[in-house]
Design goal:
heterodimer; A: alpha+beta; OB fold (Dihydrolipoamide Acetyltransferase, E2P); 6-stranded antiparallel beta sheet; 3-stranded antiparallel beta sheet; 4 helices; 39% strand; globular; B: alpha+beta; Gyrase A, domain 2; Elongation Factor Tu (Ef-tu), domain 3; 6-stranded antiparallel barrel
């Protein structure tokens, strides 16, 4: 698993990146009540804002850590946004992106570096 | 310009409870406890929530007798204060010369022996200094404002608040909405009023700062009571349709535009005689150009403060002043100002959220039914 400074996690399998927000991020957000996901087919650039998470407190932008095409979104979050609080780094993935530049992964952190980053 | 944040008498108690503390109106205040905003909101609607609101300004208008003090304050607010019974409390607004709202406040007629000329006021934390300067500048000779010193304010809100407090002093059972009593609670001298900011039955309890921790701990010992932060306080008052100063009301909005005419008695409407009366009386007779309304988004996306409200043709007709997720409603809720012609309940509007026009409609306030104890 790789991590971004904007608190997204990313798992890559066969050129497909599954992306979500970290457990640390969901703790900071508090109770998630709404998730706005991008459209399937959208071509995204690394660090672009592509989704929004609304907690009881505020709205937060979600930045995609890698470039490519959105090939799937987790519709389960629409009906059950609180899944982000229960399973941020597993079932509550946000989107799958078909990566266009594998080299972008090198800019991300591993678990040890991310844990240090959030201290 | 960053000044050192102030702390209430309960600061260490909040820390010990694991609260997340944030700067709010110059104070370091608990925004939530480990239960979280959603859980705290629901707990208050179903049980009893305990809030530290000691950051609010508690003060006294001191004159030689009740009528003199009431008459002096009637120059500053549109409420009927001369009609207050001993122990009774009213909600009102301090207005500027243009009829805009400088702050909203609670005013209580004291009835302590020897203090018959005193009114007790509670103002917003963020407006405290400005309010006190404004009030002082407009009080006549012989009537003064005395800011409360070393006082704390707790709120106990929710359907179980009465039972919890009655165990400590059954006299609260006799207390009706918008009235206070001076009570001893486990030896602590308390000024208890039946009022609040959640839409639920409940109490606001003013005590000396030195007694705040004792009372706080005592109330938390009851299994019906949990500590509630400012996050849930905001979602509770939003669902209850209550205004937050600086958002739903400010120096540009009048009490009539804000839908607060219920707080202005007939005598004051007719006679005027308060700062800002010209606009209030004109708007009462000629109507207003915009009105505060409830807005219910059709979908699940919350519309926050500042969101543009449009008619169905995409023309801007107003702006959201408070908005978020309402846990009791289990959906997004908002309030805002719209053009008067588009303010009737049922009007279809749209909300411009992240560039998308989302369908919504004008609805009645409150979103969550008030459960006040009326007698």
């Amino acid at each position: 698993m790789h991590y971004s400074k904007d608190h997204e996690w990313i798992v890559v399998e066969g050129g497909i990146a599954t992306i979500g927000i970290t457990d640390h991020a969901q703790q900071q957000l508090g109770d998630v009540v709404f998730v706005d996901l991008p459209k399937v087919g959208r071509v995204v650039k690394a660090n672009e804002s592509v989704a929004t998470v609304e907690s009881v407190k505020a709205a937060s932008e979600i930045y995609v850590p890698v470039s490519g095409e959105v090939i799937a979104v987790n519709d389960g979050l629409t009906g059950d946004p609180a899944l982000v609080n229960r399973a941020a780094e597993s079932e509550a993935w946000f989107m799958k992106v078909k990566m266009s530049d594998a080299a972008e992964l090198a800019t991300l952190m591993d678990k040890a570096a991310y844990d240090k980053f959030v201290g | 310009m960053s000044e050192k944040l102030q702390r209430t008498a309960l600061f260490e108690a909040h820390q010990a409870l694991g609260a997340k503390l944030v700067p709010f109106a110059g104070y370091e205040m608990p925004v939530q406890y480990p239960m979280g905003v959603l859980g705290e909101h629901n707990w208050t609607r179903q049980n009893a929530g305990l809030f530290d609101v000691s950051h609010m300004g508690q003060g006294f208008i001191v004159g030689p007798d009740f009528a003199t003090s009431a008459r002096a304050m009637e120059q500053l607010v549109p409420a009927d204060l001369l009609g207050l019974q001993p122990h009774q409390q009213r909600y009102s607004q301090l207005l500027n010369a243009d009829g805009g709202i400088l702050d909203d406040l609670m005013i209580t007629r004291a009835a302590y022996t020897g203090y018959e000329g005193w009114l007790y006021v509670v103002v917003n934390a963020s407006r405290k200094d400005a309010d006190y300067a404004h009030i002082t500048a407009h009080l006549p000779e012989g009537v003064t404002l005395q800011p409360g010193v070393d006082m704390a304010l707790l709120a106990l809100q929710g359907p179980k608040a009465e039972a919890v407090l009655a165990k400590l002093n059954p006299a609260v059972l006799e207390l009706s909405f918008m009235h206070y009593a001076s009570l001893k609670i486990s030896g602590v001298e308390a000024h208890v009023s039946r009022s609040g900011y959640t839409g639920e039955d409940g109490f606001e309890i003013s005590v000396y700062a030195k007694d705040a921790v004792k009372l706080w701990d005592l109330l938390l010992r009851d299994e019906s009571v949990k500590p509630i932060g400012l996050g849930a306080r905001d979602s509770l008052r939003l669902e209850a349709g209550l205004c937050l100063y600086g958002h739903d009301i400010d120096e540009t909005t009048s009490p009539i535009e804000a839908g607060l005419q219920w707080s202005i008695a007939k005598r004051r409407r007719v006679e005027g005689g308060f700062i800002g009366a010209e606009r209030v009386q004109r708007e009462l007779s000629e109507g207003v150009s915009r009105r505060r309304v409830g807005i219910k988004p059709d979908g699940r996306a919350p519309a926050r403060d500042g969101t543009e409200i449009q008619d169905l043709a995409g023309r801007k007709i107003g702006v959201v002043t408070s908005g978020g997720f309402g846990p009791t409603v289990n959906g997004p809720v908002a309030m805002g100002y719209v053009e008067a012609a588009l303010s009737p309940v049922g009007t279809a509007v749209q909300l411009l959220v992240r560039g998308q026009a989302l369908p919504a409609s004008v609805v009645n306030l409150p979103f969550a039914t008030h459960n006040f104890k009326r007698t």
